[in-house]
Design a protein that fits this description.
Layout lengths: L11 H11 L8 E6 L3 E6 L3 E6 L2 H17 L6 E2 L2 E5 L9 E5 L4 E2 L8 H15 L21 H10 L6 H13 L8 E3 L8 E4 L2 E5 L6 E3 L2 H4 L1 H5 L2 H11 L4 H22 L4 H16 L5
Parallel strand pairs: 4-10
Antiparallel strand pairs: 1-2, 2-3, 3-6, 5-6, 7-9, 8-11, 9-10
Length: 296
């Protein structure tokens, strides 16, 4: 899986012009490029803010969903989030909506260690429990998150085939097949983050402090969010996570393990190219999923 090139000019000149024109009180702050994510580019603005702009056409609708829904959801969530502080409009220099959010001190958890994994297990489970509430009928729909796992079967098979020299194909297929066979989500769709992987979780001094990038927010099966536990936590903290989340059954956990092996393959593939830290996350995810007492 490649890391996509930008579809838009999101250079320092463009970002500086947008901020000065639309938020002149912020226009003279220091501006520093932080990262190019899969969909957005990030520029730190002074000490306490960050500018996020879609760098791909596919990211525009995702940011629109975040701007629409995250301000309603954030107050009930027990961790800080990337709720927009300022919302920028399209202009001649940049044709789409963009945002300014808080800057969170710390490191993303694809690079930072967890000093207190049991505490993180509890806090992250409580965060997901608070988020996973029934969603309204007009909540966004995402065709690759929160859906029935069978919809992702081609993606799984493609990654399994391309990475077969690096992974235990037979055991991963057993986990996947069990997840496909598990009873589907039968309750009303709930709000899910959609992409709460370790690079979207910010830690300070090894403790989880914030959850960012809600672009994939949508309504669906919470199993895809729960899969993050196997991406993030050591084996000895995973049962505590499930106990803290509380409202789960065998089928939900089995589907979550299916998502975990899929995400593990995704991250391993990306990690072999553009993002070396993702390789570590991918391999750890696959190892934990196969070691889980809930795996077949």
């Amino acid at each position: 899986m490649y890391w996509p090139e930008s579809d838009f000019d999101v250079s320092e000149r463009v970002v500086r012009s947008l901020v000065r024109d639309q938020f002149p009180d912020l226009g003279d702050r220091a501006l520093l490029h932080v990262a190019d994510g899969f969909d957005n580019t990030l520029w730190r603005l002074g000490d306490d803010l960050v500018v996020r702009l879609p760098r791909r056409k596919a990211g525009v609708a995702l940011l629109q969903n975040e701007v629409r829904w995250l301000p309603e959801l954030a107050p009930r969530l027990p961790l800080a989030t990337s709720v927009p502080v300022y919302v920028g409009r399209a202009s001649d220099g940049y044709p789409h909506l963009w945002v300014i959010t808080r800057w969170f001190e710390g490191e993303p958890l694809d690079t930072a260690p967890l000093n207190r994994p049991d505490q993180t297990a509890r806090v992250f489970a409580q965060f997901l429990r608070a988020l996973h509430q029934p969603a309204p009928h007009d909540a966004p729909v995402n065709h690759v998150r929160g859906v029935a796992l069978v919809a992702m079967a081609d993606a799984f098979e493609e990654r399994l085939a391309s990475l077969r020299a690096l992974v235990d194909v037979a055991r991963l297929r057993r986990v996947w097949d069990a997840a496909i066979d598990a009873a589907p989500w039968s309750l009303p769709p709930v709000w899910i983050h959609g992409d709460p992987h370790p690079a979207n979780l910010i830690a300070l001094e090894g403790e989880l402090r914030a959850v960012v990038d809600f672009g994939d927010i949508c309504a669906g099966d919470p199993a895809s969010d729960l899969a993050t536990a196997w991406m993030l936590l050591p084996e000895e903290s995973l049962e505590l996570f499930l106990e803290s989340y509380a409202d789960h059954d065998v089928d939900l956990v089995t589907r979550a393990l299916g998502w975990a092996v899929l995400f593990g393959l995704f991250f391993l593939e990306i990690g072999l190219g553009a993002r070396p830290t993702y390789r570590t996350v991918g391999l750890a995810t696959l190892r934990r999923a196969l070691a889980s007492p809930h795996s077949p």
